[in-house]
Design a protein that fits this description.
Layout lengths: L2 H11 L7 E2 H7 L6 H9 L13 E2 L16 H7 L5 E2 L2 E2 L2 H4 L8
Parallel strand pairs: 1-2
Antiparallel strand pairs: 3-4
Helix pairs in contact: 2-3
The protein binds a DNA duplex (13 and 13 nucleotides) through helix 2, helix 3 and strand 2.
DNA sequence: TCACTGACGGGGC
DNA sequence: CGCCCCGCCAGTG
């Protein structure tokens, strides 16, 4: 467990309910812009972290639920988001631009 | 040590 | 619009 991972998890937990963020935004915030893949890789291990990580609030830059297969069920991620008021159509977050949450260092 | 993979992103064609 | 290539970084065999 790297410090990098912890930073990813800590940041993901800060994502407000009903909002989403992209891997790239998270990576950029951590100062490792361009390493969005690594952020995604970190999320792969998020299920084993405590407290729980709201991984369903993290999508790719297009607002697509690319990580849904890593939840128990392929529809789990979508259900979790819709349960928070986020509308999903064809695995894509609607109004992604509006719901997109940009992490800030001052917060 | 090298090669490959991946819940990504950007750019070229 | 779809496809491909490359950079990115950590984990794995």
């Amino acid at each position: 467990m790297n410090d990098f991972y912890k930073r990813v998890y800590a940041l993901v937990r800060k994502i407000p309910k009903g909002r989403v963020a992209s891997y790239g935004d998270i990576a950029e915030h951590l100062g490792t812009k361009g390493s969005a893949r690594t952020v995604g890789y970190a999320m792969n291990n998020a299920h084993a972290v405590s407290p729980p990580i709201p991984a369903h609030r993290v999508v790719n830059r297009n607002g697509l639920l690319t990580g849904k297969h890593h939840f128990g069920s392929p529809t789990m991620m979508q259900q979790l988001l819709e349960n928070e008021g986020v509308k999903i159509i064809d695995d894509q977050v609607q109004d992604f631009e509006k719901l997109r949450w940009i992490p800030r260092k001052r917060n």
